């Protein structure tokens, strides 16, 4: 009985183990689709993440390539200069303006090398502005007369095939040789001179042109001398008062930028006055030399 009972117990245990195993396998079989579904969902999710990452990376690479192309573009020198100019501030600080001011010595040298007309700049003081304008007008008129004198001499030399460095005496000699049928002489009254031709009946066109050129020479040289006297007086007066004029302009109450401009104009005006002082003296010397030569040809001692 005990053996049978023991066998039965063993069989029951085996049966229970078999049932438990079957139950476990059944549960495993039932659970596996859920797990597989979850795993598949996870795989799909990470696949989507990977695709998104690839897309983002590809976009960044394309953008980087575009940016690299733009950065590697090398503009020419003109565009670079233009870009740098555009980047300059409209209003610079006082220190920046001081650093970029031109060298006074180089400015003076540049002015000294100029030739021609003098255009006075305003210093916003009416009396001083008028003074500089008067000096400029007088000098510019003198410069025009000087150009007329030089032009007449050049035309006279060219007409009688005289060398560029030849004198008025050489031209008169060539004139007499070419027009040997006429008696040609220089006549001078005061500072007026002219060419006298005898007989006066029918001088040819070329000789008439020479007479007209000599008449214009006389007028130009006389005008240069007259302007020089007046101009030197005005220039001397202004230069003697330079420090007082400068102080007067600096003491006037103006906005900072306007004051800087006015002082620069005044400085340039004084530089121009000193320049034209030298040129005016040169014009007068050349005109005086011409008049003295004409006087010798006319047999007159000045």
Description:
The chain has two domains: 1-70; 118-298, no CATH class. The protein contains nine helices and two strands. It has helices at 2-72, 77-86, 94-99, 104-112, 126-159, 168-178, 205-240, 242-251, 256-298, and strands spanning 183-189, 192-198. The radius of gyration is 52 Å and the shape is elongated. Residues 1-7, 26-31 and 62-114 have low confidence and may be disordered. α5 runs antiparallel to α7 (205-240), α5 (126-159) packs parallel to α9 (256-298) and α8 (242-251) packs antiparallel against α9 (256-298). The protein has 302 residues and is mainly α. 76% of the residues lie in helices and 5% in strands.
What is the number of independent domains?
2
Q: Count the strands? A: 2
The largest pleated sheet is described as: 2 strands, antiparallel
Whole-number average pLDDT?
75
Question: What is the distance, rounded to the nearest whole angstrom, between the alpha carbons of the first and last residues?
Answer: 180 Å
Summed up, the helix count is 9
Give, in order, the helices and strands: HHHHHHEEHHH
Sheet/helix structural class? mainly alpha
Indicate the radius of gyration in whole angstroms. 52 Å
**Based on CA inertia axes, which overall geometry fits?**
elongated
Classify the helix fraction into a percent range.
over 70%
Strand fraction equals: under 5%
Give the strand order of the largest sheet, numbering strands 1, 2, ... along the chain. Answer: 1-2
**Residue runs with pLDDT of under 50 for 5 or more positions:** 1-7, 26-31, 62-114
């Amino acid at each position: 009985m005990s053996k049978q009972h023991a066998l039965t117990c063993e069989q029951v245990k085996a049966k229970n183990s078999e049932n438990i195993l079957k139950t476990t396998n059944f549960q495993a079989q039932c659970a596996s689709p859920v797990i597989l579904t979850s795993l598949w969902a996870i795989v799909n999710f990470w696949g989507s993440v990977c695709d998104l990452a690839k897309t983002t990376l590809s976009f960044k690479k394309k953008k980087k390539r575009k940016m690299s192309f733009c950065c590697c573009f090398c503009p020419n020198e003109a565009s670079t200069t233009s870009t740098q100019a555009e980047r300059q501030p409209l209003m610079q600080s006082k220190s920046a303006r001081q650093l970029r001011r031109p060298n006074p010595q180089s400015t003076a040298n540049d002015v000294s090398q100029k030739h021609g007309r003098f255009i006075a700049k305003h210093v916003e003081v009416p009396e001083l502005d008028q003074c500089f304008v008067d000096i400029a007008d007088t000098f510019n008129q003198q410069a025009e007369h000087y150009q007329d004198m030089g032009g007449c001499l050049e035309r006279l030399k060219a007409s009688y095939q005289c060398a560029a460095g030849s004198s008025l005496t050489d031209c008169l000699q060539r004139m007499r040789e070419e027009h040997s049928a006429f008696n040609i002489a220089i006549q001078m009254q005061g500072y007026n001179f002219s060419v006298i031709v005898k007989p006066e009946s029918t001088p040819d066109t070329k000789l008439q042109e020479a007479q007209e050129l000599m008449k214009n020479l006389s007028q130009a040289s006389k005008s240069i001398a007259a302007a020089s006297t007046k101009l030197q007086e005005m220039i001397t007066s202004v230069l003697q008062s330079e420090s007082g004029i400068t102080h007067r302009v600096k003491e006037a109450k103006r906005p900072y930028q306007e004051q800087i401009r006015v002082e620069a104009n005044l400085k340039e005006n004084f530089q121009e006055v000193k320049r034209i002082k030298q040129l005016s003296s040169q014009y007068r010397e050349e005109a005086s030399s011409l008049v003295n030569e004409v006087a010798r040809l006319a047999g007159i001692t000045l």
